[in-house]
Write a structure and sequence with these properties.
The complex is a heterodimer of chains A (110) and B (114). With 110 residues, chain A is an all-beta fold. Chain A has no helices and 11 strands. Chain B is built from no helices and 11 strands. In chain B, strands 2, 4, 5, 6, 9, 10 and 11 form a 7-stranded mixed β-sheet that branches. A 4-stranded antiparallel β-sheet of chain B has the order 1-3-8-7, with no helix packed on it. Classes of the chains: A mainly beta (110), B mainly beta (114).
Chain lengths: 110, 114
């Protein structure tokens, strides 16, 4: 079983729509969780860290459900510039190893 | 400006040749990583280092070698034993030391075979 699994999509949504991505992880002892954004042919960039209580940054909301071992990312009022691949990343407790999902592709359509 | 610098941006390898990709960081991070990304694929871990003079194999270490002689530097050598080296190579660093802080990435090196 993979450490981190994501629905690869693609998700094609109209501008202004709300879209949600989920990601599951297999190691119940995982300690920290992140969402990264990767544009085509570029490096991943940190979008948000995910905290137990859930956290929000503008149009983006991240949530963690430890009991079900999944994290989610909600994007409200989608913009054309949100088009990218979103990577779910989990940091295990085994010493600085990060596990990446394969990414979910989002295209926001005018 | 603090960050991670990878060079070169583009690299071409001839058959039978070893090439070295540079990664330098001035973030004072203890941990450094090398990943490979193939088109349409996720990131795969090649090697990582948690402290100077120590490094560990990742999932796809065969055909690659690394060194960590200085905290700031973690060069990756793609040897001739790596038969399919064409990929996007990403270097990352994190604070390390048991702190569960995120990784930061360099802007990558694209390696192709001539």
């Amino acid at each position: 079983r993979k450490e981190v699994e994501q629905d690869p999509g693609p998700f094609n949504v109209p501008e202004g729509a709300t879209v949600a991505f989920n990601c599951t992880y297999s190691n119940s002892a995982s300690q920290s969780f992140f969402w990264y954004r990767q544009d085509c042919r570029k490096e991943p960039k940190l979008l948000m860290s995910v905290y137990s209580s859930g956290n929000e940054d503008g149009r983006f909301t991240a949530q963690l459900n430890r009991a079900s071992q999944y994290i989610s990312l909600l994007i409200r009022d989608s913009k054309l510039s949100d088009s990218a691949t979103y990577l779910c990343v989990v940091n295990a407790n085994t010493g600085n190893q990060f596990y990446f999902g394969t990414g979910t592709s989002l295209t926001v359509i005018p | 400006d603090g960050g991670i610098t990878q060079s070169p941006k583009y690299l071409f390898r001839k058959e039978g040749q070893n090439v070295t990709l540079s990664c330098e960081q001035n973030l004072n991070h203890d941990a450094m990583y090398w990943y490979r990304q193939d088109p349409g694929q996720g990131l795969r871990l090649i090697y990582y280092s948690q402290i100077v003079n120590d490094f560990q194999k990742g999932d796809i270490a065969e055909g690659y070698s690394v060194s960590r002689e200085k905290k700031e530097s973690f060069p990756l050598t793609v040897t001739s034993a790596q038969k399919n080296p064409t990929a996007f190579y990403l270097c990352a660093s994190s604070i390390g030391g048991g702190e569960y802080q995120p990784q930061h990435f360099g802007d990558g090196t694209r390696l192709s075979i001539l």
